[in-house]
Design brief:
Layout (H helix, E strand, L loop, with lengths): L9 E3 L8 H17 L2 E5 L5 H15 L3 H5 L12 E3 L16 E6 L7 H4 L19 H29 L8 H4 L3 E9 L14 E4 L5 E6 L5 E5 L4 E4 L7 E5 L1 H6 L9 E3 L7 E10 L4 E2 L17 E2 H29 L6 H4 L3
Helix pairs in contact: 1-5, 2-5
Organism: Lentithecium fluviatile CBS 122367
Protein name: Clavaminate synthase-like protein
Keywords: Iron, Metal-binding, Oxidoreductase
Length: 354
């Protein structure tokens, strides 16, 4: 088990593919210990090439270098209703009592055509992606190809991680197969400007302290630190330093609920006081939106009641979105009203988006 106050360990995931039963069992035990402790670990030895990781991170930076007016043409709040495209700074507020968050994002998912049942039935985050125009980004086709290749490889890796998670719970390796079929996952390119050194005290966050909404998250970090995980044993914030080629993996609220709180969806945040721009790419694996989640086998004693009722994947994830975006919208509306009463005129981009 990770020691108290220790940053999430780096595990060699190649043991899953190696055919070495002892190495695979050791990986299962290490993942189980992480899930019981802080719900976070890093993995190397996976099947996502370093070169592809570097290319998508390069596109991450290139996208956010576009002028704001060009990014706003594919704003997720005005160009569509299925949560794809650009997200303005200060759109979200995950930690109550803080300021809206100092990050901008770009939402990407599987390329779902408007004829697909998921789009027709308005399923979770399902629809066509929104891309910059050729006019604004002449090599946008390479951006698309790189992003979708990376997305699908990470989704495949998430399915392999779920096989390991099944084994940690003494279930069959393919226990989560029905859940992962026709799964929804959301990728976000993220950019955090550097914050003033005193910004934690002033409640400014890149991302406020929160837990993720879905099942598991796979995060690619660039070279600049800022991610912190709360250690429940020591009551300290631990830095998760970027490791070349590694993914940070953490459990979300849905997995914690599914395991009857046996496994931990842990609090984490981003505070970038490095003096440099930070970039990262999380992929949030939610699962089949219609799949009904209820207490997993082996996660409650005989005769013991489950802590949570049945819920679909879609219901669980949408509830998390509603809370965090609604909180930011309320904050900005209140700020605009106060400015109006004081005779000030708030900046349009500060109050116009949720």
């Amino acid at each position: 088990m990770p020691g108290a106050g220790a940053a999430p360990p780096i595990l060699d995931f190649s043991a899953f593919y190696s055919g070495d039963a002892a190495a695979k069992q050791k990986l299962v035990e290490d993942v189980r210990n992480c899930c019981l402790h802080n719900g976070f670990f890093q993995i190397t030895g996976h099947a996502v090439p370093l070169e592809l990781q570097q290319r998508i991170m390069g596109w991450n930076k290139k996208f956010f270098d576009l002028p704001l007016e060009q990014k706003m043409k594919i704003n997720k709040d005005t160009s569509n209703t299925w949560n794809r495209g650009y997200e303005l700074f200060k759109s979200q507020m995950l930690e109550e009592g803080t300021l809206p968050e100092l990050k901008e994002g770009f939402y990407i998912g599987d390329e779902i055509p408007k004829t697909h049942p998921y789009f027709i039935n308005k399923k979770l985050n399902s629809g066509p992606n929104m891309w910059p125009s050729l006019e604004h980004m002449p090599d946008v086709e390479d951006f698309k190809a790189t992003a979708l290749d990376y997305y699908h490889r990470v989704v495949d890796l998430a399915k392999d991680i779920l096989k390991v998670l099944a084994l940690t719970l003494d279930l069959e390796e393919n226990w989560f197969h029905a859940f992962t079929e026709d799964a929804v996952a959301t990728m976000r390119l993220l950019h955090y400007p550097s914050q003033p050194a005193d910004s934690p005290a002033k409640l400014t966050r890149g991302i406020g302290a929160h837990t993720d909404f879905g099942t598991i998250t796979l995060l690619l970090q660039d070279k600049v630190a800022g991610l912190q995980v709360y250690d429940n044993a020591t009551k300290e914030w631990l830095d998760v330093r970027p490791t070349p080629g590694a993914f940070v993996v953490n459990l979300g609220n849905l997995m914690m609920r599914w395991s009857n709180d046996k496994y931990i969806s842990n609090v984490h945040r981003v505070i970038n006081v490095s003096g440099q721009e930070r970039y990262s790419i999380p992929v949030f694996f939610s699962g089949n939106p219609d799949f009904v989640v209820e207490c997993l086998p082996n996660c409650r004693k005989e005769g013991e009641e489950a802590k949570y009722g049945r819920i679909t994947v879609e219901q669980a994830v949408l509830g998390g979105y509603a809370d965090s975006y609604g909180r930011a919208e309320k904050f900005k509306k209140d700020a605009a009203e106060k400015a109006k009463q004081a005779g000030g005129v708030p900046a349009a981009k500060e109050v116009a988006v949720a």
